[in-house]
Amino acid sequence: MQEITITSTLKEQLxxxxxxxxxxxxxxxHTFMESHIFAVWDFMSLLxxxxxxxxxxxxxxxxxxxxTTRFFINEIVLxxxxxxxxxxxxxxxxxxxxxxxxxSGANTQAMDNFMDSLLAGKTVAESLDLAHAxxxxxxxxxxxxxxxxxxxxxxxxxxFTYGRxxxxxxxxxxxxxxxxxxxxxxxxxxxxxxxxxxxDGDHHGALAxxxxxxxxxxxxxxxxxxxxxxxxxxQQRIELWNGIAKRIQQKRTELN
Length: 256
Hints:
The chain is 73% helix and 2% strand. By secondary structure, the protein is mostly helical. Helix 2 (26-54) runs antiparallel to helix 8 (153-165) and helix 4 (93-104) packs antiparallel against helix 10.
C-alpha cells in the first residue's frame, strides 16, 4: 500500500501563520478558544462521517468495508471520543476542550447554545445562527459539512487526514511554544494540545494516512480528487486562522 506524500506552500503558510504568535494575553487566548471550539466539534463530525461509511453502525450488524480500514477508523475514533483525561478518567477531546475553556475563563455560551439547538432538532446551519457563532467558525463548519454531504469517501478521508490530522501536531507545537500565561489557568488546554501532538503525530496521523492510501488504492482519478481537496482543506484552515487573527486584533483595538 503506497503512502500519499503531500507538499504544499499552503501547508507551510499554516505552520507559520502569525496567529500563533498573537496568543499574548488572556483576552487573545479566550478569543481563539471561543472560535476554535467549533473546529474541534467539526473534526468529530467529519470523523464520524467516515466511521459511518467504513463500519456498520446500525442494527442488525453486518460486516462493512474491509477489516483494515475498519481498524484504522475505529482506532482513531477510540482515541478521539474516549481519551484519557488529566485525572485518569475518560473524555472526548471536544469535552476536554470545553473543560479547558471553562477552566481558563473563556466564554462557552455560543457552543452551549449550539449544542442545545442541535439536540432540539435544528440543523447545523440553523444552530450556528441561533448560537451567534463567530463568523469565521460558522464559515468553517458549513464548508466542512458541504464536503461531508457531497464528497466521496476517499475525498473526505483525505480532508480528515491531511486537512486535520497531519496538520495538527505542527500547528499545536507552535501554539504551545507561543502561549503566554498572563495569569490565566491553561493546564487543561496545554494538556489538550500536547495530547493531540502526541496522538496525531505518533499514531493517528499514520493510521489516517494508511486509511486514505487504501481508499485511493493507486487510482489516478481518485488521487487527483484527493490532491484537490487537500489544497482546499489547507485554504479552509487559513481562512479560519485569518478570521480569528482579525477578531483578536479588533478586540485589542477595542480594549485600547
